[in-house]
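Extended Data, panel c. Modelled sequence:
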Amino acid sequence: MRQKVDILIVDDLKENHLVMESVLTDEDLNLINAMSGEEALKLCSSHSFAVILMDVQMPGLDGFQTAELLRKIEKTKKIPIIFVTAISKEKKSIFKGYEVGAVDYLFKPIDPLILRSKVNIFKELYLQRRLIEDIAEELENKIVELTNLKEEKCKLEDISLEDFLTGTYNRRGIDRMLKMHWRNCSRYEMPLSVIMLDLDNFKKYNDMYGHIQGDEVLKKVASSIKGTLGRSEDFAGRYGGEEFLVVLPNTSLDGAIIIADRINNKLKELSIKHENNDANGYVTVSMGIASIFPKNHMNMEGIIKHADEMLYKAKENGKNQYKYIEI
């Protein structure tokens, strides 16, 4: 069922209302009468009219004055106004109507066919405009909904890339970020270095102090590692268990060694007791460092493999140290 469209008839004579009502019998029309310009202004503040049929000569506010006032109000300034008048058809009078905002004229006696035709045109224009507005509002709501969903998706992705315990990247996050930096370093022919770290004798630490305390140590170590990274593009992630990976884009082997030394110094400052650590009675790490020019190699898995091999050598050589390779 189509919605009814409000049409405002403004005339100080009741018989003129009756004449137009007898012509405008379309079921889609909801005819609303105003006996004066003042009443028309009040009705326009509470209704949305497709068109206003307004007499020119009325006591109080005449049609021209009423139209001028309607054009000054934001809500009503775009309502089409058709003047219905029996006065002179002289150009001067007609121009006056157009100057105050009329879109058309009807002269009495009214031709029923012309009246119905004009009102029907404005009714259809109104319905089309409302349809466009409804579609625009729906689209706007959809855009807002999609924007919210995108923001939620980004938040969830950020969460899914983060290691809950340490606040560093998890394995998935490491892979994603490393791929991005690998491409950039390959494109711009820059070096890329990684440091694989492993807490020495950490199983023994958990056995002695408990897993809750062990988790606290992991958080402190992760924080210390992040504290050594001075650039926004450098990042650290928990590779698994007590293993961490530091990725250093556009960093040579010498630069990576500097970071490794900083990590060791940070851990010395922490001085976390670990009586079951054969190295020195405190929490220490062994590190494997690998530096590569991605431009000269086909995939990024190789650099992690080499860093892991260097880590193994550091462990085999007594722990609490680093080994490195430049590929």
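The CA atoms of residues 257 and 289 lie 8 Å apart. This feature is highlighted in the accompanying rendering.
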